[in-house]
Design brief:
This protein is of the alpha/beta class and 258 residues long. The chain has a single domain, classed as Metal-dependent hydrolases (TIM Barrel), CATH 3.20.20.140. Helices cover 47% and strands 14% of the residues. A 6-stranded parallel beta sheet has the order 3-5-6-7-8-9. It has a 3-stranded parallel beta sheet with strand order 1-2-4. Strand 1, helix 2 and strand 2 form a beta-alpha-beta unit. The longest helix has 18 residues. The protein is globular and about 50 Å long. The protein starts with a helix and ends with a helix. Bound molecules: fe (ii) ion. Fe (ii) ion (FE2) binds next to loops. Fe (ii) ion binds next to loops.
Length: 258
C-alpha cells in the first residue's frame, strides 16, 4: 500500500465531498452466482442492512474458483448494474462496483490478463484467497506470481489461514513486502472466537492490515455490517489509521472505476 498516494487522495476527497465513506471491498452481494446471496430479495435485504449500518460503497466480489461454474465477467457486471438500479429506486445511496474473490490457481494471472476474471474495479488490484490450511510458502508464492504479472494482490481475510494465526511473523513478513491485507469486520469483534479476535487485533495493532471488509454472504450471521467494528476501531486506534482501513486505502481501488 502506497501511503503517500493515500495522503494525496485524502486531500482530494476531503475537498470534494467532505463526507466520510465506509467502503466494503469484499462481499458476496450479487444473487445466485456463488454461495452468497441466493435471490434478489436477499440481495436487497443485504443492501438495506448495509445502508442502515453506514456502508457507502461496496465492491461485489463473487467467488472465482478453478473448475467451478463461475459467473462470467459480463454476468457479474450485468447483475451489479441491475442491483444498482434496484437500490437507486429504493433510495439506497450505495455505490456498487465489481470484482472477484479468486481462489488462487496458477492460471489466474493469465485469465485476469485475458479479462476472464475481474480485477477490483477494473484496475490493478485483485482480491485473492487461499485454502485455510495452505502453508505460508504457497500463499507467499501465489501472491508473488500475481505481482510478477503486474497485479496488486490483496490477501483476503488474513485471519482465516492457519499459518498466519499460528505465527504472526508470517503476517509481518507479508507486510514487510508491502503485501495488501484484508481482515473481516466480524473477526475483529469476535465472530470467529476470542482467540482469532486477539490475533486480528494484534495484526491491526502492528499496522499490518490495509483493508476491512464484511465478506457478507447473507442477511444473518454473515450480513454486511461494519458499525460494531468501526466503534471498536475508533476506541482503540488513532483516527488516521481507522480512516486508512475504512476508506482511504479503498479509494485507491475505486478511484479509476468507470
Ligand atoms: Fe469472501
Amino acid at each position: 500500500m502506497n501511503r503517500n498516494k493515500g495522503e494525496n487522495i485524502v486531500n482530494l476527497f476531503e475537498n470534494k465531498e467532505k463526507k466520510r465513506r465506509v467502503i466494503d471491498i469484499h462481499c458476496h452481494i450479487l444473487p445466485g452466482i456463488d454461495d452468497g446471496s441466493d435471490s434478489w430479495e436477499t440481495s436487497m435485504e443485504m443492501m438495506r442492512i448495509a445502508w442502515a449500518d453506514g456502508i457507502t460503497d461496496m465492491i461485489a466480489t463473487p467467488h472465482f474458483k478453478a473448475g467451478h461454474h463461475n459467473a462470467s465477467p459480463s454476468k457479474v457486471r450485468e447483475l451489479a448494474a441491475e442491483l444498482q438500479t434496484r437500490i437507486n429506486a429504493e433510495g439506497i445511496d450505495i455505490n456498487i462496483y465489481t470484482g472477484n474473490e479468486i481462489m488462487y490457481f496458477s492460471e489466474a494471472a493469465d485469465m485476469l490478463d485475458a479479462g476472464d476474471i475481474l480485477t477490483m474495479c477494473d484496475g490493478n488490484y485483485v482480491l485473492v484467497e487461499f485454502l485455510p490450511g495452505d502453508n505460508f510458502m504457497r500463499i507467499s508464492s501465489g501472491i508473488d506470481d500475481l505481482r510478477y504479472m503486474g497485479f496488486e494482490p490483496i490477501l483476503a481475510h488474513v485471519e482465516r489461514y492457519e499459518c498466519m494465526l499460528r505465527d504472526i511473523k508470517n503476517v509481518q513478513e507479508l507486510a514487510r513486502r508491502d503485501i495488501n491485507m484484508q481482515v473481516n469486520a466480524a473477526s475483529l469483534t469476535g465472530a470467529l472466537g476470542g482467540k482469532v479476535k486477539k490475533s486480528v487485533i494484534k495484526m491491526v495493532d502492528e499496522g499490518y492490515i490495509d483493508f476491512i471488509g464484511t465478506d457478507a454472504h447473507d442477511t444473518g450471521k454473515r450480513s454486511p455490517r461494519m458499525s460494531k467494528c468501526i466503534k471498536m476501531l475508533n476506541r482503540r486506534y488513532v483516527s488516521e489509521d481507522v480512516k486508512d482501513m475504512l476508506y482511504l486505502n479503498a479509494l485507491d481501488i475505486i478511484e479509476d472505476y468507470k
